[in-house]
Write a structure and sequence with these properties.
Number of domains: 2
Structural class: alpha/beta
Organism: Methanosarcina acetivorans
CATH architecture of the largest domain: 3-Layer(aba) Sandwich
CATH superfamily of the largest domain: P-loop containing nucleotide triphosphate hydrolases
GO molecular function, one term: ATP hydrolysis activity
Strand order of the largest sheet: 5-6-7-3-8-9
Oligomer: single chain
Strand content: 25-35%
CATH class of the largest domain: Alpha Beta
Distance between the termini: 38 Å
Largest sheet: 6 strands, mixed
Bound molecules: adenosine-5'-triphosphate
InterPro entries: AAA+_ATPase, ABC_transporter-like_ATP-bd, ABC_transporter-like_CS, ABC_transporter_ATP-binding, DrrA1/2-like_C, P-loop_NTPase
Protein name: ABC transporter ATP-binding protein
Number of strands: 13
Keywords: ATP-binding, Nucleotide-binding, Transport
Order of helices and strands: EEEHEHEHHHEHEHEEHEEEHEH
Number of helices: 10
């Protein structure tokens, strides 16, 4: 079943079309990336799905229907602009927010304690939010969005301000939620995280849908047919000049990217390589989501 569906959604602010005829769906149990440059319309799209603003046209369905009060309790939202009661203690903050979403008190307390432990915040449970560092505040914000165990979790830039250890902890929690069958919508500018985490993505640019599909499929589609080769010994690199059918060679992350001539296939190159040297890795070189993002935005703005 779809967790979310957008069908022909448009939205303008004072004559400016901010969302232009957008259709997409998010499947239950996937991590769905919402990507796009600054001002592309990502936050507006999230506000539309949460019914904070209304579309000019089109239809939005959440869990197959409209966004009722009961459906709202099944959603968790980490907004772009953070805001918690600064004077409230950590544990009390989480329990209070869970209670607002109708979680029974005892359950809210148990859940809040477990979550604080999972992100290394338990020892700070008696501190006020304002006494925490920026990264810790970010983590408590994240926990605030998930304390009521929502089925659909919407995260706007969940990694901002986090160090690598905390980033990994939050990333692991996101994966854990996906493994439990929950749906996650992740809006981020961190392409490396998006590439690792997301099953599918929607990329907006100036309110238009410019990419939509699985991360693997989009990377494959944008691949230039080149190959990534890693040799056991660096000195073997010189053999590349002996092999026919290679158009271009580029260095890339400790390996070489080989662009074959149109008429040469990958198997022929592989055979030539293994005859001459020990090969550790040989695979299709796929562009990163970051490269595709930049290429797509630049090609659209160049039109
Ligand atoms: N309430 C509003 N009134 C007028 N214009 C608005 C309003 N909200 C958003 N916009 C405009 O809509 C466009 C999209 O903004 P939005 O915040 O959705 O982008 P975004 O993709 O989330 O950007 P960022 O990555 O910078 O957060 C921008 O041009 C913005 O100025």
């Amino acid at each position: 079943m779809h967790a979310l569906e957008f069908e022909g959604i448009s939205k303008s602010f004072a004559e400016k079309n901010v969302i232009r005829d957008i259709s997409f769906s998010v499947e239950q149990g996937e991590i769905f990336g919402l990507l796009g440059p600054n001002g592309a319309g990502k936050t507006t799209l999230i506000r539309l799905l949460l019914d904070i603003i209304k579309p000019d046209s089109g239809e939005i369905r959440i869990f197959g229907g409209s966004l009722s009060a009961a459906a709202k309790d099944r959603i968790g939202y980490l907004p772009e602009e953070r805001g918690l009661y600064r004077k409230t203690k950590l544990l009390d903050t989480l329990v209070y927010l869970a209670r607002l979403k109708n979680v029974p008190l005892k359950e809210a307390q148990t859940k809040a304690e477990a979550l604080l432990k999972s992100l290394d915040l338990y020892e700070h449970r008696g501190k006020k939010v304002e006494e925490l560092s920026k990264g810790m505040q970010q983590k408590i914000q994240f926990l605030s969005a998930v304390v009521h165990e929502p089925e659909l979790i919407i995260l706007d830039e969940p990694f901002s301000g986090l160090d690598p250890v905390s980033t990994k902890a939050v990333k692991d929690k996101i994966l854990e939620y996906r493994n439990e069958g929950k749906t996650v919508i992740l809006s981020t500018h961190m392409m490396e995280q998006a590439q690792k985490l997301c099953d599918r993505i929607l990329m907006l640019n100036k309110g238009e849908r410019v990419l939509y599909g699985t991360v693997a499929g989009i990377r494959k589609e944008h691949g230039k047919n080149s190959l990534l080769v890693e040799f056991a010994e660096k000195r073997s690199l010189s053999i590349l000049h002996e092999i026919p059918g290679i158009r271009k060679i580029t260095w890339r992350e400790g390996a070489v990217e080989i662009l074959p001539e149109e008429s040469t296939n990958a198997q022929a190159i592989l055979q030539e390589l293994v005859r001459r040297a020990e090969i550790l890795r040989f695979e299709q070189a796929l562009p990163s989501l970051n490269e595709i993002f930049i290429e797509t935005v630049e090609s659209v703005s160049g039109e």
